[in-house]
Design brief:
The protein is α/β, with parallel strands linked by helices and 313 residues long. It is built from 15 helices and ten strands. The protein starts with 6 loop residues before the first helix and ends in a 5-residue tail after the last helix.
């Protein structure tokens, strides 16, 4: 529990001063409440954070898979949780700045959310992973015509300008196809236009369904709407097309910590940096796949990743 200062304690003079002097030691001894959102990836990252802290001798209380973004955000601002993995792009919504171009650039997005949250809320953002869990287009590895490269959306735009275009078919949700921030943003940034014949629009927004359609070539589909770090991407032998022009906001996961707790544990950044450094796009896809595809326990997946980094037993 967070210490509460009563009216009586405020009047105790030297006793109150002594309490203030002892505060740093108390802060370091209290359990750190580690939380996460509901989804598999967030829970995995929260578990890794918890295990790192335990390996460093810090007491931990887990509140993993606590709720959606708004619940976690409210909880950390209220001091009900101490640290959880958040995504840089969500700063656009936290601070009502969706139109700011900074959210489409990884370095600028991190710097903006780090600065704003520190100044306004005493929330500390530690170093993010390089993985970007944003809307993306993934393709089968045999999609490109012979002798052609298909690694990025620039490559896709080039190929769609040739006679190959009728061979491309994307499985996506209606939201992805219609939302200005999704497929229309890709088309505007890269100068291509998909026709109805290039689309298989599916009900709902489940990327597991769109990926399965591409993997099985359902109705000629060879591409899928995905989130960049979806666990089934590598398992289904798909690859995410790079977005070098930043059509989408960047959503890099990073530890988000209450300032009070970051001050009490000044080595947090040093402890967690190698963990989040290891979370490349393909690396995080593979970790997610161990849970959602292979059915492994998230605690064991986290432990295995940390052992590979020389952390924990």
């Amino acid at each position: 529990m967070r210490p509460m200062m009563t009216r009586r304690s405020m009047l105790l003079g030297t006793a109150a001063l002594a309490l203030m002097i002892r505060w740093p030691a108390f802060a370091q001894s209290r359990r750190v409440v580690v939380s996460s959102k509901l989804d598999t990836e967030s829970a995995l990252l929260g578990e890794m954070i918890a295990q790192v802290l335990e390996a460093k001798g810090v007491g931990v209380e887990r509140k993993l898979q606590l709720g959606p973004t708004r619940i976690l955000r409210s909880a950390i601002l209220a001091g009900e949780i101490d640290i959880y993995p958040e995504y840089t792009g969500n700063g656009a919504f936290f601070f009502n700045m969706e139109a700011d171009a900074a959210w489409h650039d990884a370095a600028k997005a991190y710097e903006k959310v780090r600065t704003l949250d520190a100044e306004r809320n005493r929330i500390v953002w530690l170093k993010p992973a390089s993985a970007n869990n944003t809307w993306a287009i993934a393709v089968r590895r045999d999609t490109a015509p012979s002798g052609q490269t298909l690694d990025s959306l620039e490559d896709l735009a080039r190929l769609l300008g040739t006679s190959w275009k009728p061979q491309f078919k994307l499985a996506a949700s209606a939201e992805f196809v219609e939302s200005p921030a999704a497929l229309p943003a890709f088309q505007s940034a890269y100068g291509f236009k998909l026709e109805p014949s290039n689309l298989l629009v599916l009900a709902g927004g489940d990327t597991a369904v769109t990926m399965r359609a591409a993997a099985e070539k359902l109705n000629g589909v060879n591409a899928a709407m995905v989130y960049g770090t979806d666990g089934a991407i590598s398992a289904l032998e798909l690859k995410v097309l790079a977005d070098p022009r930043g059509a989408q906001m960047v959503y890099q996961p990073a530890p988000c910590v209450r300032g009070e707790v970051a001050s009490a544990h000044p080595q947090l950044a040093e402890w967690l940096a190698p963990v989040f450094d290891s979370l490349t796009l393909t690396g995080l896809q593979a970790l997610n796949a161990k849970i959602v595809v292979e059915g492994q326990n998230q605690r064991e997946v986290a432990r295995g990743q940390l052992r590979g980094l020389g952390i924990g037993g």
